Amino acid sequence: MKSSRIAAVPFLFLAASVAAAQSKPLKVYISVDLEGVDGIVHSDQTSAQGNEYARARKLMTEEVNSAIDGALAAGATEILVNDSHGSHRNLMIEELRPPARLASNSIKPYGMMHGLDASFAAVIFIGY
Predict the structure, then answer these.
(1) Does the model's pTM come out above 0.85?
(2) 104: helix, strand or coil
(3) For residues 29 and 101, what is the distance between their CA atoms, to the nearest angstrom?
(4) How many CA atoms within 13 Å lie on the side-chain side of 13?
(5) Which CATH number applies to 2-126?
(6) Rounded Cα distance, 69 and 40, in Å
(7) Helix and strand numbers, DSSP H then E, in the chain
(8) What is the chain's pLDDT, residue by residue, as a tens digit (128 residues)?
(9) Which of 25, 71, 102, 124 is 20 to 30 Å from 11 by CA-CA measure?
């Protein structure tokens, strides 16, 4: 989890500086896949049929929440999280930090980048 947070920090501060200078909302997009999340080491963790899937969902959600905390600390005003793994129903919605919104639908025309457009000032990739 620490490596994801560290990698995202410089980009978030740059985006926050740009947004502050322009007095515009700072929108942050987070796309998360499961295989690269810290602590995910076996295929049993990446499938709903796996013995450790519940734990993997928790790890995934915690890592996303860390990124949300970092984005908010950098001045984010809107955060969209795209659950990009498998069925797109892996994140624990009830544990996701507000004010983040979740794109969690099986039908995503742009897949792992669904919902991303030019209005976002920063993008964070987790678990890739």
Answers:
(1) no
(2) coil
(3) 10
(4) 5
(5) 3.40.50.10780
(6) 22
(7) 2, 4
(8) 455 444 454 445 555 555 555 568 899 999 999 999 999 999 889 999 989 999 999 999 999 999 999 999 999 999 999 998 877 788 999 999 999 999 876 666 667 887 899 999 999 999 99
(9) 102
